[in-house]
Amino acid sequence: MLLSLKPSRQLQSLRHCFLQCHNIKSGISARIKMRKLLFFPGKISVTFRKGPLGYLRQDPTDAAKLLKDNPSLQDKSAPVKEELVKTNALTVVRQRGGDASDKTEVYGEYILQFGKYKGKSFRWLLENDIGYTIYLLKSHEKEEAAGVFMAEGHSKDSLLSFVSYALSFKEIQSLLSYDSKKPVATAAAASEDDQLVGFGSRASNTWREIWDSRDDGYAAFILKKGCAPGTKMHKLQRYLQKKQHPASDPPLTTPTSRAPAEAMVMDEDEELERAMLSISPSKQPQSSVAAAPTSSTARRRQTSGPERVPSATLSTPTELKSSEVDAPALPSIKRPVPLPQQLMFLMPETAGSLPTETTVTVPETLLCSPERSAVPPQPPLPLPAAQRAQSQPSTVPTCPPLQLPGYDHDVSQWNCSQQQRIWMKTELESMGLWPGSIPVSNPMKMVSLWRFPPQPELIDSISDLPSPKYFQLHPFFIWKPENDSLMGRLRNNDTLPCIDGCVRPQVVSAGIGRPRVIVGVTGQYYLLSSRLCCKVCRKRWYADNPLWLENLPKRYTNLLPAILTYKKAICKSVMDELRRTGNSPTDMANQIMEMMHLKYERANLAYLLSCQNIMDGEAGKYDQRTITQFLRQETKPAPFGEYGDSDGWNGISVSAHYLTDCLLHEYQHQEVAIKTLLQGNFGQAFRSDHTRKVARKVTFSSGTMSSYAIMNENWMILSWVMVQSETEKSLKPMYEGLANRYSSAGIEKAQYQWVDRDCCAAFKVAESCTGEHLNWDAWRTTDAIVAEATSGNLLNTCASRCHYNTNITIKLDLFHCMRRFLRECVSEHHPLYSSFAQFLSAAFSVVDQEDLQKLKDAYTFCGIQPANPTKKHIRGHCRTKIPQPEELVQRVEGVFQHFYLAKDPNDVPLFKPSMLKAWRIQRVHILRGCLSDPQVEGGILYRHGGTVQLNHVQGEGAKVPVWIPIRGTSQQEGYHFHQAQWVTGTRISSELFQAQGMTGVARWNYQRLVDLKQPDVRLPAVFDPALIADLNAVSERVFGEEKYPAFRLSSRDTGEKFGLEYVEPDCRPVPLDWDKHRSKTDSTDALSPPPQISPPPVPSELPQSSSTAPTKLFQFPVCPPADVAVKPDVDPSSAPDPQTEPETTYPPPLPQLSSPTAARTGPVKTGGRVFVLDHKRWPAPMKKAIDDLLNKHRGQKDMLKHVDQDYAALVHNSCNDPNSMLHPTTKLHISQYLKHLAKLMNTSSSLNTSPEKLQDRQQLWHSLTVGSETTSVPVVTMPVATVNPPPPAQTLATPLTQDSIEKIVKNIMERQQQQQPQQQPGKKKPQTKTCLSCGQPKSRYENDGSSIHFFFQQGPVRYFYCSNKVFKTYGAEGLTNPKMPFKDFAGTEFFQRELDATKKNVEERGQQKRKRAESQHTGRKCRFCKMELKQGPNSPHIHTGFPGVVGKYIYCPAKVFSIYKDQGMGKEMTWKEFQESQFYEMERQRWEVEKGK
Predict the structure, then answer these.
(1) Greatest CA span in the chain, whole angstroms?
(2) How large is the C-alpha radius of gyration of the chain?
(3) Across-strand partners of 940?
(4) For residue 858, what is the enclosing H or E element?
(5) pLDDT value at position 298?
(6) Pairing status of strand 524-534 against strand 476-479
(7) pTM, to two decimals
(8) Any bridge partners for residue 79, and if so which?
(9) Residue 653's beta-bridge partner residues?
(10) DSSP H/E element including 717
(11) Residue 603, pLDDT score
């Protein structure tokens, strides 16, 4: 009654009472809270704002409004990590004396990292704006329902934490529960015709007006438009379709509820209205609450059709009967069944107890439903008294309604095409996995979780044309770990964990789930994950949640075909291919997109071929015309659609950023295994080297990074770090870690190390004066120079000697020493450069003459003429040695004496003047023994690599050994090349650099293990450290032994850091933020359907403008004016301050260099052309320009580089001239042109051809090779380095005594005596056959020289040549020389006669062997009794075995009798007699010992 009054004093007093009651209640509640006894003096609880009736106020406070209305006051900074937010919250709680163990209190101090209230605490938001809180909770619920995850990052983490914090309060839960139950207050239209359009230019028009004015084309436009189900346009489309086809779809009638007789009127009073709105939510009369759901339910049933109701909500129908004569039949009313106790966990939590019975009033006007009959409803007839009592409102006992989310069983919410949804639902129903479907029994649970679409070409569409929908289906994988009928065997009575970590979880299904698209190598597929719920904590989540998957046992995640994160879903096959090939993410993305489009185009072709087949049959191409064309209405096939059509193929696009994130996630999974494998490598000889090839790819503004790696004698990497300064101090932590690794493993430390510099103590040399290099006395080595270089302390204080092994021997690498000499030459294109390098190499390395002669003999055996071994063969098959200092300095000095004044025909000297200083520096290293091989007892260090057949020629003469030297760091150069290939791109992030670099090092070590080809080592054929580690662990658990012991992960974590994680002393660490890629937000999702155009755009790494102008292949920037300053790429002032974790001892991290994702490197050389010309095709103007540039830069360092840059500038400037003859070329072609000029100027020889000079050089070469003091190289073969050794053996608890030692020695002597008789027969010296003609051995080298022997093989014929034999045979026919070489004999006519005779003998022997084989028995025979070894009636052998001894035993009576005849066996026994004799046990023991060997 009060609400209908006019403005008066009573209305003002009512408003005053409302406000006063609200203020009094707030003050009382505040005083009550202040009087609470708190155990923690600083504990703060949330103070909710409530209205006069006790309901939460949802309007914002003045402070919140101030932030909402003023965007300038809002925090715009970047979000921070969840860990940092938690640390700050804990600090705040501890400082004020709060309870740090209370999760709710700590959450209250969390700072928001999103939205307009960013920078405020969680508790502040609950106290100032409940409405915004409810909005966030509902948005998060809709996001989970739709299965679409927004941008992931620190903002998302903050939102999830706030949702968890807000739902922990009963007030918030009660408000959410109330909002979900109350009816939606919408302006109900009288009918569908009065519904408003609500969108577009005609939003204010009704549906009826759109239909009546359909001639203007707007209705046709709406009908053709594609839209999502449930939208306003979709509803209008359905209305217009019903109007078009009234016969097929009957008109829908909605029962209208009785409107109130008179609407309540309230005068406009803003202050009173604001006070009334604060009482939220308002309670409504019970009748209106009950009537609204009924009408809305009827309307929903009419519009959307019948729905499948869960089995838990089905009710037993009962009928309210009335008189069949006086009243019409009443519809049946379903009486709900009480909710089972097992499903009570699905009920939402409420503050109070829920009632078990409710009173439902069923009006008589609603009992006659228009759905039951098409006849218009008649007014009710008067009922008799008895029946009128029955028609009164009835009380139906019911239970609370089951609060299940509406999207659990709603297929329309799935993010896939409509035909994909229908097929997936059909498959689940056929397997009995859809709610309400018939259970399916699978014998032995033999069922596949993969579901593949039916073959569309085989589907019989009867009279219709083939539908493209069948060709647009993708496979899907079912993931329902909670389903007992499907995955009960896998669970095996185990309890699935809860995502919140409940102590006794009870995880059950809470819905059918959702599909999630997966990117695969061969195409896309879907992962259908169920929705789960825990009965204990009532938490709900999807089965593909990464946090929950981490808690599952390994047998579950091993079954999944994909790697899942919150935002990414990638197939394991893609990561395997990316790890195997080493391709860049960009190349891999292009490969995947190409495969997906290939699959799409092939499906399109299959659809068109199917349609063509039908059309050909109807046209009579197959001798009989079909009549299906007369039965169908459509004569034109439906279009297949584009690649990205959401209602068609629904293809996806994959970007390089997407694969980069997946690659980083995969590396984090493999990181522990890779580091442990690297810590398990050892060696006895180190080779270390610096390089900057790969370090240039890291994006840091300092630009001082350098790569440092240590390699062992097997070319395996022991440690790899990235350092900022190439000093010994920076390597201290690395060598300390190596020392700790060797000590913990109990392995002897390495004794030798080859380095690229800093091999000995520091020294000084005299500077060379002008013209001094032309005097030979300045080059000569005197006794004073030798004494000065070898006196004093020669050892340096390097990091390996100070922190690893004080007794280590450090040597200088020969490659780096020779490169320092060659750098001081004028140019590598000098005519004498190659000759000087060849002589210098021969001076440093002495080849073993015996190995060289064997290699020459192999050349002769293989028919290679002349027998001059190549440098590659000498390096691989001959041992070399670097002489000792005295001999080495003489050899090198002789080379410099010969070349120090050498010039080419143009009078250009070979050496620069600085060559003299380089010689003085390297001479000190030579005299100190830094280059000479270490003097090991027995020879120098080598590793034997087996033998190979030269040029794949069969025969003993072509077999040559493979020698692998231990010295030097030459293999490091190959490692540097491969390392630069592992790290893709030119400028990449530090995280991607670390992932690709560490993965490449682990794969390099694995490949070196494979190359060793150790006979007793079993290695996997795949490289996946984490997989092999899990395989070894499970194999040891099941079988008691590891499957791949050589691939064992080290159990000792030495704490070493590798790559960019390595921290140098007093240096800034490299920032590695593995989560920064997740927070990256793009304008378009990385994995999303492309725009519906043809063809879909290729993912680009550079941002593109929205303009539709055509792009240019080459577009040069316009040069800025002279008065405009060019901004530098890096602005130190604008760089963000580096963030460091609290309580860190390291200085701030290195600043990163800002650079585009794809940048051009080097000058533009093509000038618009895409090809280059070889120097043979250069026109005259082009050749003249390059000649001028060569003369300009002659004698300068990096001459070719300057010539290439200047010529590129000339081409660039002349690109606008169409008549220009300056074509593009490359640095390689210019280098070839320079060598071509050198050959033209020195046609006879590159050396001086004077007789005196030529004789001097021949004598020098003879002294460096054959005439050297060192002609043989003794060898000390090193064993293979240890890889992942087992833990050191523990010492015996009891000491060894004299008696125990004697017993051990006695046992060893007895075993040796037992094995000696068995080993003697095997030590037979190979015998050489004797030639029947001359009596000499059939060998080329073992005869006395009276006859010449030679082996010649042609195909299957092998001919033995003896000079005496052929002389006796053909002496009468003219052969005169009894010692004729085979080369001369091969040129005579007698050679062909000998070959023909040999071929004839070979054929006759082959026929004789075949005849003997046909006549003899094919079965095996016993070597004792000479009878068939096969068991049968004609053989005395018995095939049996001894108990407890593995393997089959063949009993031969003759053999057993020969063994035990001396021990008393009188005759040959049958098997039964032998079993009963005393010799049975003796034979069993003998057989067991023999099998053990």
Answers:
(1) 156
(2) 46
(3) 1275
(4) helix 849-861
(5) 36
(6) parallel
(7) 0.53
(8) none
(9) 1088
(10) strand 717-723
(11) 94
